[in-house]
Predict the 3D structure of the following.
Amino acid sequence: MKTKFKEAIKRHDIKVGIIGMGYVGLPLVIRFGSSGFKVTGFDIDGEKVSILRQGKSYIAHIPPEEIKALIDDEKFYPTDDYTLLSEVDVVIICVPTPLTKTQEPDLRFVRATSRQVAKNGRRGQLVILESTTYPGTTKEILLPDLSVAFGTVGKDFFLAYSPEREDPGNPDFSTEKIPKVVGGVTPACRELAATLYGEVIKKVVPVSSTEVAEFTKLLENIYRSINIALVNELKVLATRMGIDIWEVIQAASTKPFGFHPFYPGPGLGGHCIPIDPFYLSWKAKQYDFANRFIQLSGEINTGMPGYVVSRLMDGLNENEKSLKGSKILVLGIAYKKNVDDLRESPALVIIDKLLKRGAVVSYHDPFIPEIPKTRKYDFSLQSVPLKEDIIRQSDAVLVLTDHDGIDYQWVTSLSRLFVDTRNVSFEFRKKFENIITA
Ligand SMILES: NC(=O)c1ccc[n+]([C@@H]2O[C@H](COP(=O)([O-])OP(=O)(O)OC[C@H]3O[C@@H](n4cnc5c(N)ncnc54)[C@H](O)[C@@H]3O)[C@@H](O)[C@H]2O)c1
């Protein structure tokens, strides 16, 4: 079975099913579809399915033309009908893996998908989990469900884990160019999964188990979280010492070995870095082990929004203003530049703190026309145009996301107070007296 399957993969003569049409699943659809594979895209969100069927995109950095071309070419069929899982040869799972309110892994989506694949899939399929999760998930959740439904793994069906390393909005690294780590439950599982990805991704990195692949993703994100926390903490100290941390980082970056720059900011955001480390620290407890680095970096990073607000208050104070009643124009609310993703964005935490302290908040973000209601927040705010009178009327402009396409020097020249959390003012900081960093 394995040899025939492998040959069919190489001929692109198989159907690929991708579950979860989000930031990870959709680029994968485009990758497989544009490489000649037929792709069925599954999502429980009927609205997304309907948008995709019309050949449109709902993610700013994913071009609608690419989706439309695949739909017109009948290479991509979006659906919310799980029974179609029986028609695909490969199932790739890209569903969310958030945290519960008590910061524990919330594997509801993975469990639900696993049950759906077991119910609607069939023998002979290759199933690959891509959602970020703790080491052991593939074997603890998917393997039992699929073994009962299909038989012996590595013989009657194949199961692998391959983490996603998408960097949304980064034009230098498309899905195709990012090496893909692949671990299989058995050698046959790994071989098939590596063959599949090898058809659409330039470099595949096979590892010895699904646990190694799962842990690899967490190491990458924990590394980022800890290093960001480190520079955030050093930023607070440098500011107190009257030293510009960004200048320090720039100078340190000239070291040709042993230093990789990370940059401070208003706090962690996005679906990965603030969340993933806690998947590992939760699992570690089962091994009677406490991850102190994860805990500490989490504390420092979640303290950043409060620090930004205190810096803003210091700046207003210098202008003999209280935060209460002050008009604050926030520039950028997405969690990172040039994307329309608000998930876990520190801007939401900061806006909430400002509103609770009586500030009058407006915002400008070319990627996010309005702030949708979330589980935690309901601000009813819409992006205002970045016009001279709006800037002049504000008591402070607070930059939280460094989107391209904004003339920050022009904004600074019109602002009473310009609070920069992203170093957009590095080139002209010394020329103005109304800038503070935070
Ligand atoms: N966004 C990133 O940059 C990124 C990068 C690397 C890894 N990841 C990981 O990839 C996974 C997916 O993240 P994402 O950002 O694509 O999430 P997302 O929220 O953008 O997309 C997930 C999609 O899955 C759908 N979904 C949920 N349950 C489903 C089910 N039972 N059946 C079918 N569809 C279902 C949702 O409606 C949504 O459209 C997560 O584990 C995340 O940690 C994300």
